[in-house]
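Work Package 3 committed the consortium to producing structural models of liganded targets before the mid-term review. Because experimental data for this complex are still outstanding, the team generated a predictive model from sequence and the ligand definition alone, so that downstream docking and mutagenesis planning could proceed in parallel. The input record is reproduced below exactly as it was submitted to the modelling pipeline, together with the SMILES string for zinc ion.
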Amino acid sequence: MLDICLLGTGGMMPLPYRWLTSMMARCCGSSLLIDCGEGTQIALKEKGWSPKPIDIICFTHYHADHISGLPGLLLTMGNAERTEPLIMVGPKGLERVVGALRTIAPELPFPIQYIELTEKREQLKLGPYEITAFKVNHNIVCYGYTLHIPRTGKFNLEQALSCGIPKPFWNRLQKGEIVEAEGKTYTPDMVLGAPRRGIKVTYCTDTRPTAAIEEEAAGADLFICEGMYGEKGKEAKAREYRHMTFYEAAKLARGADVKELWLTHYSPSLTYPEEYMNDVRSIFPRAIAAKDGRTAELQFEEE
Ligand SMILES: [Zn+2]
Ligand SMILES: [Zn+2]
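The resulting structure, written out as tokens with the ligand in place, is given here.
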């Protein structure tokens, strides 16, 4: 139902076998990318996922390791003869930053629509995605994102019968349509129970831990969070550069009670992130030191 791939897991610079942090989601034929550093399109190619259906690109912030891969990706999407509009979401200044990068990718066969974030928290509904952008705490303006795939309530036969809804309309109402017939208006809630639990993924990098992250990630099926440092004694460095340690990420995951934590955005000096995972799991057991290309196929819960 919602495919997630963490295309890369590196921070600051791409390394052999570790591309820069970027995540792609696929749902109902529409793809969404978060961040696009140098080499993201190679990571995408390695994964075997196509850039052509990317309808939305969200940027956390405008440090080069999160956006410098954009012009090349746009050219590739153009060469694939994409014509549908592409929506970009990012902190204030998006159009100016992308405009500057577009100097080297000026002619594209598709239009770009910009959504610039200015509030502390903003909610958008784009294609199948309900997106919440929330400000985090980095050394420049930076946002985290939650993707939510909503799920409607179950069809309620008794309710449909007792409301006297004509049977030929049931299917359309179940799909969320409003039906008007013979002067009456039928709405989906007349045949559906309460909305069911959807799918939720929260992604945040680059940031210090904040209370807002814990709130926004609450109960997520998957929480992808930066972990710049695993080695002990790096707490001061993490504070200074406004990043976090593996252990700080694990505490956020524990506080938010997520189903799974994937660490990402490793410092280039960190060669074996797995080395530290025993200590991380003593804080939050369902933690994974993600590697490039890690994928999850998230489904709606069984009834
Ligand atoms: Zn970064
Ligand atoms: Zn940064």
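Reviewers should note the following from the model. The chain has ten helices and 16 strands. These observations will guide the Year 2 experiments.
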